[in-house]
Specification:
5-stranded antiparallel beta sheet; 5 strands; single chain; globular
Length: about 80
């Protein structure tokens, strides 16, 4: 009665297609090319460095700037740059 803990990956489903393709949240995070990209959940936070990686691959900075997976950027507001 040996139970072998082998798990077969179930990655065959392709019903959802986000740009990152790895979002497991419900509801799904907004994709990086949507207008609400910065509302995605944080995947990795680095507050000591002032940035965090969002679920959809967007890197959001504390000053309001952001870098998107397709390499376009959002500049931080002018008021934040002065700080
Ligand atoms: Zn997500």
């Amino acid at each position: 009665m040996a139970q072998i803990g082998v798990r077969t990956p179930h990655r065959a489903r392709r019903s959802r297609s986000t740009s990152a393709g790895t979002c497991t949240h419900t509801p799904c995070c907004p994709s990086a090319d949507s207008g609400e990209a910065c509302l995605a959940r944080v995947r990795t936070a680095h507050p000591e460095q002032g940035w965090c990686l969002l679920c959809n691959g967007v890197i959001a900075f504390d000053d309001g700037g952001a870098v998107f997976p397709d390499s376009h950027t959002i500049e931080p507001p002018a008021s934040a740059a002065a700080a």
